Amino acid sequence: MVFAAKKADVPNFGKKLVSVNGQEILLINLKGEIYACENECPHQGSPLVAGVVKDGPTLSCPRHGYKFNLKTGACLDFPEYTLKVYPVRLEGDDILVELG
Ligand code: FES
């Protein structure tokens, strides 16, 4: 696992785009739970940093509104699309991600 950011840098219901080992990773804080995923929508590549986060937990793409489950990456609207999600671990205030 590699360090991605400090938890304090990702506000509740907020997002933070970081670069980890040259890869863009989108971090999301939903009520203290941290999720990590790719920033590029698997549909047509829209940046998901502008997406809407809701309980579920889901992230909706700002372009066509496809919703993705932040735990599994599954698209709730069109199952042929899958968002790449990364395992997250918290160590104190450090957010670590597994890039695989
Ligand atoms: S580009 Fe994301 S839903 Fe179409």
Automatic annotation (TrEMBL):
Question: Which ranges carry the Rieske domain?
Answer: 2-97
**InterPro entries linked to this entry:** Rieske-like_NirD, Rieske_2Fe-2S, Rieske_2Fe-2S_sf
Identify the keywords attached in UniProt to this record, alphabetized.
Answer: 2Fe-2S, Iron, Iron-sulfur, Metal-binding, Nitrate assimilation, Oxidoreductase
Q: Which BP terms in the Gene Ontology apply to this protein?
A: nitrate assimilation
For molecular function, the Gene Ontology terms on record are: 2 iron, 2 sulfur cluster binding; metal ion binding; nitrite reductase [NAD(P)H] activity
Which Pfam families does the record cross-reference, listed alphabetically? Rieske_2
Matching PROSITE patterns = NIRD (PS51300), RIESKE (PS51296)
PANTHER family tied to this protein:
3-PHENYLPROPIONATE_CINNAMIC ACID DIOXYGENASE FERREDOXIN SUBUNIT, FERREDOXIN-RELATED
Q: What is this protein called?
A: Nitrite reductase/ring-hydroxylating ferredoxin subunit
UniProt source species: Geobacter argillaceus
Task: Give the taxonomic lineage as stored in the record.
Answer: Bacteria, Pseudomonadati, Thermodesulfobacteriota, Desulfuromonadia, Geobacterales
